[in-house]
Amino acid sequence: MMVLISYDVSTADEKGKKRLRKVAKECQNHAQRVQNSVFEADLDYSAFMKLKNRLESIIDIEKDSLRFYYLGNNWKRRVEHIGAKSTYDPEGVIII
Questions:
Q1: Integer distance in angstroms from the first to the last C-alpha of the chain?
Q2: What gap in Å lies between CA 61 and CA 56, rounded to an integer?
Q3: What CA–CA distance (Å, rounded) separates 40 from 85?
Q4: What is the DSSP string of the chain?
Q5: What is the pLDDT of residues 2-57, one digit of tens each?
Q6: pTM for the model
Q7: What's residue 49's pLDDT?
Q8: pLDDT for res 77
Q9: What is the CA radius of gyration of the chain?
Q10: CB of 68 within 8 A of CB of 7?
Q11: Do 67 and 9 touch, CB atoms closer than 8 A?
């Protein structure tokens, strides 16, 4: 299933900056960055729940926020890209 993940982490202090780095790194490990604080994750339900729980454990719910948009399996007709930064196909071939 495709999920769009966005976050806003307060960086008013050093702890916030550390949380921001951890959230970004966790997202980068499981998803594709499409904008500064926005990631697309094409994961099975179990992997997504692990990522979601990990992100929830990192943020400070009094200062930060996470948003999850569930696009499902038919996400291609729900996403339109216009402008800079060419898009990618998460279901395409990966060359390592």
A1: 23
A2: 8
A3: 14
A4: -EEEEEEE---SSHHHHHHHHHHHHHHHHHSEEEETTEEEEE--HHHHHHHHHHHHHHS-TTT-EEEEEEEES-GGGG----SSS----TTS----
A5: 899 999 999 999 999 999 999 999 999 999 998 899 999 989 999 999 999 999 99
A6: 0.78
A7: 95
A8: 64
A9: 14
A10: no
A11: no
List pLDDT tens digits, range 48-82.
999 999 999 999 999 999 999 998 666 656 666 66
**Type of residue numbered 82:** I
The rounded distance, in Å, linking the Cα atoms of 87 and 83 is: 10
72: left (phi over 0), alpha (psi -120 to 50) or beta: left
Other Cβ atoms closer than 10 A to 31: 21
